[in-house]
Write a structure and sequence with these properties.
333 residues; alpha/beta; Isopropylmalate Dehydrogenase; 2 domains; 10-stranded mixed β-sheet; two-stranded antiparallel sheet; 11 helices; 12 strands; 41% helix; 20% strand; globular; homoisocitrate dehydrogenase activity; oxidoreductase; LEU3_arc; isocitrate dehydrogenase (NAD+) activity; EC 1.1.1.87
Length: 333
């Protein structure tokens, strides 16, 4: 039996996690779901956004499903904290065009790999007399080596030809200088994969003007967060954007959208990003057969445009999309 921790969180996070569980339960897999708490609702009930019990549950399972949370002022982000606790050091975000979705380009297919445990998200901020706020940016050689090796291995396994390092070493000479230097040293171990680097501002422009040039991008925490949301906008929005936070022992899988309190409870949340995240989770758990089926079925549903939520121009409810994908899965031979 495969045990999976589920953290629905707030708003539509609860709805999309329920959708993911519904889909997984339709497969011929022996799964057990262990629910845990995090987020704003949790804070109001328990006095913390991430209880120790939730961390303990996640550490006992290889995979965690994470919905979405509403931030609480002056409290550390529960998802960032959980990534650190589980040492899920690589955030992987596939960016791919879908037939049936009107977007700027129909030929995009690349992966963003983002360092997930340090950088500007080190979560160490101070304030001096309310006039000056200071945030610590931490880049270490050890963490850089791990995520850069991960990116090159990802490229190798998926037959990708190039890895692009994104940084701002012309200004952040020490921190991004270390990241860039580490990148090129590691690239020597992968002679069959091209290595290049761009400044983050130039990358933001290239994503809009010529995103086809990218294959695998590896970058630091904040840059990767911003660029991956920008890239999601190129292929239809955050409702189609899955992600996996991967480490050597644990993985956390989540859509990259927020808790969307404005539509919470209306049963129109788009479950596709979560469902694609479940595909990533199953691949991580060694169930590639079902992972591939979910991807194909989801692409088929999007292509047919018969069961899409309002954010994608349809009028379907969340459960309609889930049921349509489940039906497609069982029709795939």
């Amino acid at each position: 039996m495969i045990k999976i921790t589920t953290i629905p969180g707030d708003g539509i996070g609860q709805e999309v996690v329920e959708s993911g569980i519904t889909l997984l339960e339709s497969l011929d897999l022996n799964l057990e779901f262990i629910e845990a708490k995090a987020g704003k609702d949790c804070f109001e009930k328990c006095g913390t956004t991430l209880p120790e019990e939730t961390i303990k549950k996640a550490k006992k399972t290889k995979a965690t499903m994470f919905g979405a949370i509403t931030s609480v002022p002056e409290k550390k982000s529960p998802i960032i904290t959980l990534r650190k606790e589980l040492n899920a050091y690589a955030n992987v975000r596939p960016i791919k065009s879908f037939e049936g979705i009107k977007s700027l380009y129909n030929d995009i297919d690349f992966i963003i790999v983002r360092e997930n445990t340090e950088g500007m998200y080190f979560q160490n901020e101070t304030c001096e007399k309310n006039d000056i706020a200071i945030a610590e940016r931490v880049i270490t050689k050890k963490a850089s080596e791990k995520v850069i090796n991960f990116a090159f291995n990802k490229a190798k396994i998926n037959n990708r030809k190039k890895v692009t390092c994104v940084h701002k070493a012309n200004v952040l000479k020490k921190t991004d200088g270390l990241f860039k230097e580490t990148f090129y040293k590691i690239s020597n171990n992968y002679p069959k994969i091209d290595a290049e680097d761009f400044y983050v501002d130039a990358t933001a422009m290239y994503l809009v003007m010529k995103p086809q040039i990218f294959d695998v991008i590896v970058t630091t925490n904040l840059f990767g967060d911003i660029l991956s949301d920008e890239a999601a906008g190129l292929v239809g929005g955050l409702g189609l954007a899955p992600s996996g936070n991967l480490g050597d022992k644990h993985g956390i899988f989540e859509p990259i959208h927020g808790s969307a309190p404005d539509i919470a409870g209306k049963k129109i949340a788009n479950p596709i990003a979560m469902i694609l995240s479940m595909s990533m989770m199953l691949e991580f758990l060694g169930e590639k057969y079902y992972s591939d089926k979910i991807n194909i079925a989801t692409e088929n549903v999007i292509k047919k445009r018969k069961s899409l939520t309002p954010d994608l121009g349809g009028n379907a409810k969340t459960i309609d999309v889930v049921n349509a994908i489940i039906k497609e899965i069982h029709e795939i031979k």
